[in-house]
Design brief:
alpha/beta; Rossmann fold; 2 domains; 23 helices; Ribosomal Protein S5, domain 2
């Protein structure tokens, strides 16, 4: 007899539909599986055989063939165990064929027949809904995640016995009765900018960077508060839009980091990998390709503390994602695309000991300083919009009683300026000033004749590249939006130039 079951596999963060076919016929006893399978899928044969025997459904001594369509896409992951078991049971006549229509089945099976959770259930169920499927059977541990897709009847099962009873009796409502209360995750209590004393320039730079979603670099001695300020950036980030929440949640689902949530992710991520992270850990990949840190920071912040301590090749791997907002991986098994539209925030010391240019404290040689700073290449600096110095705090600033501005007050101003940007770009394919393409710079960052002459001088004096010049104009556009202005003024250009010229203090000595 013949049967077929609908399931899916993950490619990047996208779900690819897969049809599992099973045929049980006369012939030499064999259990064969075909269809471009990864090793963990091939091993499902023994897991399914043993699990069915342990629940009282031993396979007959007949020829069993399982095929995975389409055959030209590599199937990986452990989520095929349950579809294989159901397809074989239906081909044996133990389950009705008609009930398998319009059903997505995903899950891993233990040798005792218990259904184990798998990664990537959210994108699988969302894609199945787009194909017209309205029912799905998933591991009970993944039920809450699958239920995030509205309009889908989700049945969570714990073992093969429950699956058989569900399909034999068509008792969908019985297994879907205990609905989870899908609520938004409660916002975490974030560190507040009011806890930071002094460092007004750093706070101003953070506000400008978040308003236009610009990349940001802090340079300063140890203990100046670079990490403390950066860790408070999430408190002024705008809330995620509904489409952004779903896209980000899919990434975390594929990574297996969505379990336990009450709903879609509601806060923009703040990822801060250690400087020992590998290129693969940062950009993604692996034997079974997985999203990396920059994809986990999608629509949020990637914070690289002690930037020169990262391996040079690791930092250089950020070049393309910073420009394109995505990671393109090509492997033997195919190509993968992971979203990576993030705001880069980095912090570093000006030299190995951290105290340059204070020669009273700095003991580094010029060669050591040069070698340290050269770990950050000019192409990477070109991709950083705002660079500011983090001076050491004075005793008065540290112990002062002056009331500092709260993150809530800063976020209100950020929201107003971002509303201006969204309204301006409502007909475009972007939302923030940092995303203005080079072809639109003249339209959205227009300068008068006098300003163009001034920028011509600056272009030569600072030895700007085309990329850094455009970034300077984008920052000036953000500063104008923060002032509520329609046009870029001289003061906006001057402040933007300060943010771009500061790096010359260290990289051109």
């Amino acid at each position: 007899m013949y049967s077929r079951v609908a399931t899916a596999t993950i490619r990047g963060i996208q779900s690819v539909p897969v049809c599992v076919e099973a045929d049980v016929s006369d012939g030499m006893p064999v259990f064969e599986m075909v269809g471009f399978l990864a090793s963990e899928v091939k091993e499902a044969r023994e897991r399914v055989r043993t699990a069915l025997r342990n629940v009282g459904c031993a396979l007959p001594p007949r020829r069993i063939t399982v095929n995975f369509m389409p055959a030209d896409i590599r199937k990986s992951g452990a989520g095929f165990d349950l579809p294989i078991a159901v397809a074989v049971l239906a081909a044996m006549g133990r389950l009705p064929h008609a009930v398998l229509d319009d059903v997505l089945i995903v899950g891993e099976i233990g040798l005792n027949g218990v259904v184990q959770p798998v990664h990537g259930v959210l994108p699988m169920v969302a894609e199945a809904k787009e194909r017209g499927i309205r029912r799905c059977i998933v591991p009970r541990a993944n039920r809450k995640e699958a239920a995030l897709v509205s309009g889908m009847l989700v049945c969570g099962v714990e073992n093969i016995g429950e699956v058989m009873r569900l399909l034999e009796d068509a008792s969908w409502e019985k297994y879907a009765a205990e609905e989870y209360n899908i609520e938004e995750t409660q916002p975490a209590v974030l560190p507040d900018f009011s806890e930071i004393h002094g460092q007004r320039l750093m706070k101003r730079a953070c506000e400008v960077a978040v308003t236009g979603m610009h990349n940001l670099l802090f340079v300063g001695p140890p203990g100046a508060g670079k990490t403390m300020v950066a860790s408070r950036i999430p408190s002024i980030l705008p809330p995620l839009a509904e489409a952004e929440r779903m896209e980000l949640s899919k990434i975390y689902s594929v990574k297996g980091m969505l379990a336990g949530e009450n709903g879609l992710l509601t806060q923009r991520p703040f990822r801060a990998p250690h400087h020992t992270v590998s290129v693969q850990g940062l950009t993604g990949g692996g034997r079974i390709p997985q999203p990396g840190e920059i994809s986990l920071a999608h629509k949020g912040v990637l914070f690289l503390d002690e930037l020169p301590e990262f391996a040079r090749e690791t930092v250089e791997a950020l070049r393309q994602p910073l420009e394109e907002g995505a990671v393109h991986l090509v492997r033997l098994g195919g190509s993968y695309v992971y979203p990576a539209d993030f705001m880069l925030v980095a912090a570093m010391n000006p030299c190995p000991c951290g105290y340059y240019p204070d020669m009273q404290k700095c003991r580094c040689t010029q060669t050591a300083i040069h070698r340290y700073l050269e770990r950050i290449s000019q192409p990477i600096l070109d991709r950083i919009d705002i660079c500011v110095e983090a001076p050491a705090l004075t005793f008065g600033e540290l112990t002062g009683q002056q009331k500092e501005e709260t993150s809530a007050a800063i976020q209100k101003r950020v929201a107003v300026a971002q509303d201006i940007q969204r309204e301006r770009y409502r007909k475009e394919g972007f939302s923030y000033n940092s995303q203005i393409p080079a072809t639109k710079i003249r339209e959205y960052c227009a300068l008068d004749k006098k300003q163009e002459q001034y920028m011509e001088e600056i272009y030569g004096k600072l030895q700007l590249t085309a990329r850094s010049y455009h970034k300077l104009l984008r920052v000036a556009r953000t500063l104008a939006d923060m002032d509520g202005g329609d046009r870029i003024c001289d003061r906006h250009l001057e402040e933007a130039i300060c943010y771009r010229s500061f790096d010359r203090k260290f990289w051109e000595r």
